[in-house]
Design brief:
This protein has nine helices and no strands. By secondary structure, the chain is an all-alpha fold. The chain has one domain (13-193).
Length: 195
């Protein structure tokens, strides 16, 4: 049973949504870099200087795919990456197909499930890696809040709230967080560029 009339769902994304999309995207990028900037400013000067010096020397090598660094990590990290890859692919499929259909709802719940696994394994990895938080864990909170907002929006019949929350989560929780997962020296960098 559909809570929202199908004709209303098929009209998304409308012009009103896309008018504000660029602004929301830039705000998301700005907030992400503000959190990272605050994190850098809060650390001791010697650590900050070492990080900035390191980034000044980074060169991107030719790609060379090797799963060994990922397979050496705890199972929570492996499940986290697998769920993120599934969510990235399923989310792209959702964007390309008509909205409001039974298939959209089915595949949408698959995407929600994979994002719950991404968030849950992110929390599990804190314990697996010695209880250390890093700035990327902000995306765990963003994931939980955005999923809640998207699901609450569609249950209320607010398609714009649903679409905005889910699109924001896809961009922020998967694409932006995924870019930060490829920081040189991190596991995904080592998987794709051989360390």
């Amino acid at each position: 049973m559909s809570i929202v009339p199908d004709r209303k769902l098929h009209s998304w994304p409308d012009r009103a949504f896309w008018r504000g999309f660029a602004m929301r995207l830039w705000i998301g990028f700005a907030l992400t870099f503000a959190v990272l900037g605050a994190w850098l400013m809060a650390m001791p000067a010697a650590n900050r200087d070492a990080i900035l010096s390191y980034w000044g020397q980074v060169r991107v090598p030719a790609p060379s795919f090797d799963l060994a660094p990922l397979l050496a990590l705890p199972i929570s990290a492996q499940i986290h990456v697998a769920a993120a890859v599934v969510a990235l692919a399923v989310g792209a499929l959702i964007f390309s197909l008509p909205k409001g259909t039974g298939f959209h709802r089915f595949i949408g719940w698959s995407w929600v499930g994979s994002m719950i696994v991404v968030a849950g394994t992110s929390v599990a990895m804190i314990a697996d890696f010695g209880g250390t938080l890093n700035p990327l864990h902000v995306f765990t909170a963003v994931t939980v809040l955005s999923l809640w907002g998207g699901l609450a929006g569609i249950r209320r019949g607010n398609v714009s709230m649903h679409a905005g929350s889910m699109t924001g989560l896809y961009v922020g929780g998967l694409i932006i967080a995924g870019v930060f997962a490829f920081i040189p020296g991190r596991t995904m960098w080592n998987v794709f560029f051989g360390g």
